[in-house]
Amino acid sequence: MFSFCSKPPSDASSSQRTQLDGTCKGCSCKFSSIGKQIKGGYLLRYKKSVLWSRWSEEWVVLYDDSTMAWFTEPGRSSPAGKILVKEAPEMLAIAHWTGQIPRRPPLPDGVSVSQLIALGSRRKRSKVYWMIAKSEEEVNDWIAAITKTLPPPPQIELVVDKPHAMGVLRRPIVRIRPATSSEVSARRKNRTNIENNTTKVRSEAAVAIIKKNTPESSDPKGSLACALPWGHGWGWATLPNGIWSGALTWSQCEDSITLHALPTTHCTNLIEAPCSSGIYHTDISPFDFHGIEDVGGEDFDYAMDCGDFIF
């Protein structure tokens, strides 16, 4: 069992609020004028060397340019390390979504996976910074703050190139793509609802909502795409062409069914939990694909042939 430091930082130091001057401890990169501090707090960070590995409490600061830096104690101007999250936001994972990342470290006694934050890099996939928050609520606070420093999250969508072929014998094709300008505008109009739905630690992500055959005048109709919040680590579970290679499952509620993307477990983490598997047994033939708003069509080509996934 471990405990976080309960003493408040004496003054977070003006040098941390506005800029960092100096050299990262343990590396040669020099930096200055990083930006304004958005959030700060104690987190446990995983440290590993040839002879030992441990979780160590450090003071972590998030800046408005998405830089996260960690210090041995508040008030220091030179951090022990840092990472620019916006360089690879798709490699940011929290909670159960961290299972997709290879070699997840063992957690201290009394800690659950829902308290975990992982910061990855696109340039060096083997380099991952692992951190633990005090609670699931604090993870929500951190991901909400980080999201404000990042570009709009992408869309995860069900690709319906051959609606008549969709059924129990074909695995749905799901891909991730940037959000279009119209989708970003729609999110801004419904900002409160979007933030409530995208900054919580969840064990699944909605992909598409499909309605049963209904009169043309019925409203609302389903959607073939949904916003995929930052923190789901989709960079670890997609092919180079953006196709989702992780697990999928359907859920049904009254006159609609929802396709969900699920976090998978990398083979190096199987000692902790078995791999998730997708479920594709729902017959979607009674559901109407016509009239659903085909979001994203204005900017993207849907002609990508990924082949049929037979299972």
From TrEMBL:
What UniProt keywords are attached to this protein's entry?
Answer: Membrane
> Which branch of life, at top level?
Eukaryota
Query: Which PROSITE patterns does the UniProt record give?
Result: PH_DOMAIN
- Start and end of every PH domain? 36-151
**InterPro entries attached to this UniProt entry:** PH-like_dom_sf, PH_domain, PLEKHB1/2
SUPFAM superfamilies for this protein = PH domain-like (SSF50729)
Signal sequence: where?
Answer: none
Q: Quote any Pfam family the record assigns.
A: PH
Localization per Swiss-Prot or TrEMBL: Membrane
Q: Main localisation, per the record?
A: membrane
Question: Which protein, by its recorded name, is this?
Answer: PH domain-containing protein
Q: What is the lineage of its organism?
A: Eukaryota, Metazoa, Ecdysozoa, Arthropoda, Hexapoda
